[in-house]
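Minutes, project check-in
Item: structure for the 492-residue chain
Input as provided by the requester:
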Amino acid sequence: MISEHLPVLQVVVPLLAGPVCLLLRRPSANWALAASVSWITLAIAVALLVEVRRAGPIIYQLGGWAAPWGIEYRIDHVNAFVLLIVSGVSAVVLLFARASVQREINNRRINIFYTGWLLCLTGLLGMTATGDAFNVFVFLEISSLATYLLISLHPDRRALSAAFHYLVLGTIGATFILIGIALLYMMTGTLNIVDLAAHLPPVAQTRTVAVAFSFLVIGIGIKAAAFPLHMWLPNAYAYAPSAVTALLAGTATKVAVYLLLRFLFSLFGPGLSFEQYLLDKILLPLAAVGIISMSVAAIYQTTAKKLLAYSSVAQIGYMLLGISLASVTGLTATVLHLFNHALIKSALFMAMGCVVYRIGTTQLASMAGLARCMPWTMAAFVAGGLSLIGVPLTVGFISKWYLILAALERGWMWLAALVVITSLLAVAYVWRVVEVAYFRHRESCAEVAEAPLSLLVPTWLMIAANYYFGVDASLTTGVAGRAAELLFGAAP
């Protein structure tokens, strides 16, 4: 039955569609294929999540070879949720991409663009689904190479510089991850993550394992744009095509944080990660400083896309804060914020994509009085901004509420206060855009019209998700809570 092969189809379908997309020469055909494939992967992700919630983890052995000799895909509550995030963001953003890409990308390169998109999607889904450590590296390289390509396709020459900067830092991060995996293989003789976890305790006290741990945390930290390893992200988000920024903001860093969770909890275990290596003592101050400094940096940006980019680094700090609390509630907050922040930032960057479609820039000076000309677009930004701040009835509130609960469980009132205070910093940088768009004068709207429905509908669809899952959070909190319990129970 085809249902038995859903884990591998999640990866194989976009992988095979990528080269086919390259052969198609009509932009509409390229888009139709990419969009169809993304919606298929979303349907598969939903089916996998339903099956995991019903019957428990799904194990798929490639070629019928049993682990650890063969490669297996292992789907549980944690990565089923991340698969849903990645495929869902890609599917909705592709609805937005048709008009946006035709405006921003040269027609002769559109087939290359959508091929890169599908390969990026393949890599992200593969990293999430695989249970093999070396496969993580392989899929990481597929998604990274495709991402460098997607960023560089923007006609702005600064996009080439941003892509090259990302390539250099991304290569360093990938090399660190590969070295870490190689050292673990040297000590255990296996690459299967479950098998690695079983073979690790006898050698856990060795320097080699400690070095492997360090290389993996730093390498994944670069990929996740965790402060202070975030320097590639602001320019990559600011100068990439609008649809690419929305995709990356909702998926790439989320998958990297997922990998960090998987290695820290499923492989090394919380005992080794936090009691022996004391990672929480490092993560907590770095996350706190990152949240504050990046929120302040966002306030002083002169372009809306770069403002949102620095905000993303701050939001990643909230995820790391949840990890550093080393508790089920803290991990629940992290897993929740993976989902919630994907909804928030994809919506906000799509709103900015609408602005780029009409005026060609997101310079704040050029957006003066824009709400008068593009009321639906700017209303979407305001609605998404409220979710980013964490106003009640939005997904942003749910994440921060769980983070505050986790801090109070530890008796750390100062940390709960930090979450509240930094939310006020979010008010400050969101207000900068609102103030310019709503309270600055614009001579005329004669040359600026509202964004077309093909852009507004997917943007508002993502905004609606921000409020739906903010009002009824039973599904997301239930899955995130179960994922957190499984991660703690996965300690070897």
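Outcome recorded: The mean pLDDT is 88.
No further action items on this chain.
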